Amino acid sequence: MPKSPPTNRYAPVPDGFPIRDASVRYTELPPPHDLAGVVHCFWELRTVTELSEDFLYHALPDACVNLLFNRLDPAIAGITALHTSATTLNLGTVFHYVGVQLFPGAWHGGGDELTDRYVGTPYQGALPLVATNAKLAGLAFPDATHHLATLVRWCVAQQYVVPNPVTARILSQLHAIRTVADMATLVGVTPRQLQRTLKRQTGFAPHDLLKVLRVQQSFRKHYLDLYADQAHFIHAFRDATGYTPVQYRKRFGGSSHGD
Predict the structure, then answer these.
(1) What 8-state DSSP symbol labels residue 44?
(2) Looking at the DSSP assignment, which residues form a beta bridge with residue 79?
(3) Which residues, at least 6 apart from 151, have a Cβ–Cβ distance to it below 8 Å?
(4) What is the value of pTM for the model shown?
(5) Looking at residue 222, what DSSP letter applies?
(6) How big is the chain by its Cα radius of gyration, in Å?
(7) Three-state SS for 232?
(8) What does the angle CA 182 – CA 183 – CA 189 come to, to the nearest 5 degrees?
(9) Of these four, 37, 53, 151, 259, which has the most CB atoms within 10 Å of its CB?
(10) Mean pLDDT of the residues in the chain
(11) Do the bridges between strand 96-102 and strand 66-70 make them parallel or antiparallel, or are there none, so unpaired?
């Protein structure tokens, strides 16, 4: 377990949803210091009042695996799968989820645990997700993070979650990476070695990981810092999110620097 502050400062943007008023609440809290090398944040997404129509949640690709818990049904939990393009999920009119967002590459528990769904059948895997979810009953989100941290520490002890020096180095030097060759040089391996390493450790090929990280960066940096021209940026942004930058801003708010 790392004892010093993590070198990466990767901060994925919150996913998109069109309702941004008092009826839906999204909250992030930082992890304790001993987990800061593997956990980006603890998060909560919930309705405060019942909605008049189904809530469509636009999950952006960010290369992060999430440990996810449905607070309305303790039996439903899971580990979210990775994607290179956005996924729209219908959460209904009443929902309450909490989760742990892991940094890219920190999940080493294997692909058989991953699921594409926020809602669905009860969890049947080997991790104590259902037991953890039961402990969250009746707790406000800040108090629930104690049990989420305990679960992550258990996952670290079992090596399901592991600090990843390769992805940490990539994330800490994103500003210096324009190509897969740049990424390989930064890590100190050949492109072929990087292909094998990242595929094994993250589930992404280097090109796909770079594609996801660039789009994430585009929410905070000018597109010309990341792409050859505006046309290239708009094409990559639309492939990843399903919208042009202008369309995304109009539907979900926030900003991307591609107008």
Answers:
(1) E
(2) 67, 114
(3) 67, 100, 127, 128, 129, 132
(4) 0.90
(5) B
(6) 18
(7) helix
(8) 100
(9) 37
(10) 89
(11) antiparallel
